[in-house]
Amino acid sequence: MQEIFEQVLGKENVLRNEPMSHHTTFKIGGTADWFLTPRTEEQLSEVLKLLHKNNLSFFVLGNGSNLLVGDKGIRGVVLCLCKKMERIEACGDEIYAEAGAILSRVSNVALAAGLEGTEFSSGIPGTVGGAVYMNAGAYEHEMKEIIKSVRYMDMTGKIFESDCEECSFGYRTSKFSKGDYIILGCTLKLRKGNSEEIRTRIADYTQRRVSKQPLEKPSAGSTFKRPEGHFAGGLIEKAGLKGYSIGGAQVSEKHAGFVINTGTATAKDVLDLIEFIKKTVFEKFGVELEPEVKLIGEF
Q1: Do residues 12 and 54 lie in contact, with contact meaning Cβ atoms separated by under 8 Å?
Q2: For residue range 48-97, what is the model confidence (pLDDT) as tens digits?
Q3: C-alpha separations of 111 from 94, 130, 194, 199, 269 in Å
Q4: Burial of residue 37, with CB atoms counted within 10 A of its CB: 0-12 exposed, 13-18 middle, 19 or more buried
Q5: Which residues are catalytic?
Q6: Which tens digit of pLDDT belongs to each residue from 22-41?
Q7: What predicted TM-score, i.e. pTM, was given to this entire model?
């Protein structure tokens, strides 16, 4: 398969037994059998056909910011869209961003074009594809508020486009998280605004994030979804778990809603800590915490 993949993607875009710890913000994870980086939609379509023909399973990776990869790695193929498919174009009051574009770059392009609406997402450390997939949000805003349409591919390589209303966006979910599709990009519908005011809002969100979140340590962002009527971090702190550790995984002392890698954490450490947090919070408050972090690979 090595030679076949290289014919489609080029030698530099085909890696064998690649450590996933190099590609996740948690800095955790065993090796992937294959790590492929398509540069275009056409290459992605060709690779999908090859994977289907050879009965190879695959996982689509963005910036690896909401993932916990198992210590035994990923059998099959990882398709990474973050490194190459990251074009961003502004036209009028709209921006088209490919799935691999980092959200902070999208916000910078919007700022340069004098467009407001993306400020809330400027500090989310993920890609456009991941943000669309899970309807990412922050500071009481969500991606669905600014998405006009989404361009995506099915497993046969056929390309579609759906309006926002057709994407079934909900809290940290969408039709893409429930079906077999690969997000290629999206068009954002924004508003003309004052560049200085936009810059001020971005700076405010950045300051809030830096002051409250444990950005100095590897993590996958907020570990749990917000339970109805509560805040996960608040419940975890009230349960007395701030600073609690299992192996190299720790409940952040800065923000209890984050499980961090202190430097030596394994995926098992993190998973065991997540389960302990869930059990403790349920026993104390009767609230079932649901992980926001996606588990991938073999544990």
Answers
A1: no
A2: 999 999 999 999 999 999 999 999 999 999 999 987 899 999 999 999 99
A3: 12, 21, 9, 7, 40
A4: buried
A5: 172, 222, 292
A6: 999 999 999 999 999 999 99
A7: 0.90
